[in-house]
Amino acid sequence: MLHSVGAHTWQALAQVAACVLLLPRFLLTAVMLWLLDFLCIRKKLLVAAAQQQQEEEEEEEEEAALAGAQAAGRGSPPDDPPLCVSDSNRMFTLESLKAVWHGQKLDFFKAAHVGAPAPNPEVVQLDGRTRLRILDYARGARPLILNFGSCT
Length: 152
Prior knowledge:
Shape: elongated
Number of strands: 2
Strand content: under 5%
Number of helices: 2
Structural class: mainly alpha
């Protein structure tokens, strides 16, 4: 009982430490997502304003053509389309923030890290009774290759 309380306390402390370490990175990501949404909305508004201005210029040109006056050349439309197609594809949503937080936590707690020794998890053989570690299958200096595939 005392061992399980200590293990739960250790896990809780690890979760708190992860939150403290990941919070600045998460907030930076959230600000970046918000800025992307802001720029997207700004661009949509600018494109809409440019289109409205272009329509007004076209109407004025039509009126001037009817009156016999030659209208000056109009400005060219923007080359690039708006970043956002609709209001439903925002990046700064609760779901996207949850996904970012979950992904950053998974990245923080993963067993394999660049430059660190390879993880050596326990595996169960096909008979279902024998349990060995992956690196127990390595022989000498030969590399061990794991093939994760499907035979469907």
